[in-house]
Amino acid sequence: MMVKHAARQFVFSDELLRNIFNSVSAHIAILDESGLILATNQAWNDFSASNGLPENFNFYQMNYLSICDAAGADGIKDAAAVVSGIRQVINGEVDEFLYDYPCHSPQGPRWFYMRAVLMADDGPLRVIVSHEDITQLKLAQESLKENQQTLEEKNQSLNELNTALKVLIKQRENDKAEMEKKFLTNVKMLILPYIDRLK
Fold first, then answer.
1. Model pTM above 0.70
2. Which phi and psi (to 5°) does residue 194 adopt?
């Protein structure tokens, strides 16, 4: 007799959702339709603390868009692009906004991949903004680019060397033809008359 096990439905409790939210590596903030921060995850808070903010700094009710606007007004073009993209998501002009940007530190170069999407929910409009560290990927891309440039430079040097060799070979062939011509001329002028006399 076969025993059937009833599949248990996975229940998403508030605690489980909070644990999932705090377990992802991306730095995540949830914004309302005006750009106010409603929640941040542990990765966001840890990153902030590692960059000089107090450890338990509270981002709640800070306006992310206003902060980006201020940074954009100070000439930070990435901030202006980010706030524009998030506003496009809020206004329903795009489904998602993606943006790569540098965020270098005294410890070295860093890059992040930012994504803004609307939360799939029937409730009030919410925007999920996530920042993922893509430094290793960017460093690998830069290394490949440098290697490609080096290969292109070597290829160009080889092409120049090949061209020079072709010129040298052509010159050698011309010199050889000229030498053969002179040799034949000398044979005709200097040796053939003596052969005729010997005959």
1. no
2. -70, -35
